[in-house]
């Protein structure tokens, strides 16, 4: 069975997709970019501020599903500049302090809306 997860505490989808979909106890969170859900606009600032906003957006979706960061088993981080990896890693590490999820990080040419970072997440009940 499939359930769509949605919250106004995270940005609305900017295309034909859901914020998250849960199937058989597994939550698949669509890639989150650093959009402020209150304004619907990309936040200002560098990789530190943008990573923080992405993690807040992920947290809001996890919360809407009745989960937390402790339920996350896999993250995929997309960076438009791998030179930002260390700073992203520092902010990301504040949210996962024990039993860290598996993760991949990729450098990409361009992200939606000119974002510096996008993170997609998988969590389990």
Short description:
The chain is built from 2 helices and 8 strands. With about 120 residues, it is an alpha+beta fold.
Helix proportion range:
10-25%
Gyration radius, rounded: 13 Å
> N-to-C terminal Cα separation, in Å?
14 Å
Strand content: 25-35%
Biggest beta-sheet profile:
6 strands, mixed
Shape: globular
CATH-assigned fold name: 60s Ribosomal Protein L30, Chain: A
CATH structural architecture:
2-Layer Sandwich
Low-confidence blocks of residues: none
Oligomeric state of shown chains: single chain
Please report the number of helical segments. Answer: 2
Following the backbone from N to C, one meets helices and strands in this order, namely: EEEEEHEHEE
What is the arithmetic mean of pLDDT? 97
Number of strands: 8
As for the number of domains, it is 1
CATH hierarchy, class: Alpha Beta
Lateral arrangement of strands in the main beta sheet = 1-2-3-8-6-7
Question: What structural class do you assign from the helix and strand content?
Answer: alpha+beta
* CATH superfamily label: RutC-like
Summarize the structure in words.
The chain has helices at residues 47-64, 85-93; strands spanning 2-5, 20-23, 26-32, 35-36, 41-42, 72-79, 102-107, 117-124. The chain is an alpha+beta fold. The chain starts with a strand and ends with a strand. The mean pLDDT is 97.
């Amino acid at each position: 069975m499939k359930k769509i997860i949605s919250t106004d505490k995270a940005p609305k989808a900017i295309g034909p997709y859901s914020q998250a979909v849960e199937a058989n106890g597994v939550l698949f969170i669509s890639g989150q970019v650093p959009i402020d859900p209150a304004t619907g606009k990309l936040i200002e600032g560098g990789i530190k501020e943008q990573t923080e906003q992405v993690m807040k957006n992920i947290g809001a979706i996890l919360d809407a599903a009745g989960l937390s960061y402790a339920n996350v088993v896999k993250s995929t981080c997309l960076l438009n500049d791998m030179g930002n990896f260390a700073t992203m890693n520092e902010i990301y590490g504040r949210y996962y302090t024990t039993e860290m999820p598996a993760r991949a990080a990729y450098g990409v040419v361009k992200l939606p809306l000119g974002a510096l970072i996008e993170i997609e997440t998988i969590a389990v009940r």
